[in-house]
# Entry
Amino acid sequence: MAEQGRVAPARRRGLADEVADRIREAIFSGAYAPGAQLREAELSRALDVSRGPVREALLRLEREGLVRSAWHRGAAVTTLTPGDIAELDSLRGALECLAVEQVVAHASDEDMTAIEQAADRMDRAADEHEMVRCDIAFHDAVYAAAHHVRLEEAWQAIRSQVYLFLLARIRAGVEETYLVHLPGEHRELTAALRARDAAVALRLFAAHRRVAFDVLTEAHSSAAADETRDVAL
# Structure
């Protein structure tokens, strides 16, 4: 029992962190698609670790929103519902509005250069998965440039779910459009931030979010219509 006024020593949690990183990257790379089961025994064998760190890693990923667990069904990669997509879009919008305002007001030249470099890396993305990584890295740079600790923490809380959101956009069948148009969109966002034009930047960021939201909303509507037609047949 810990002495009064003192806390017990913390357990080392490095292995669970590493396991969570490996599973997260597997999800982001497409190795585990939305809805895929994440079985402790299989992951334990694949990662050559005991089931304890795997169990702890899955709990962490569940807190990030990457994994969902159900009684008697175990853990599975999160499948974003239309409600999830709408909530993420609205929350992301609120956070980005504050981020843009903060960047315009407080970002240094070095911060702006970091944002520009993140946007430039999109031109060299070899495939859609690398493009998603570049897309997320761009937004990481924007939030870092805002110099607002709690805002960046709020972004980190939804970052993995936004990653799923962008992966879902790819699965909606618009890979070529995503690869072709995204670098140009982000160059426009960067130019507005560099010009310290908050009004233009806010408008462009909103339009950028709207494209992805519309793609996913249309994809869900089409899928629902297909299911209804199949049932009728």
The mean pLDDT is 88. The chain has two domains: 14-77, 82-230. The two ends are 66 Å apart (CA to CA).
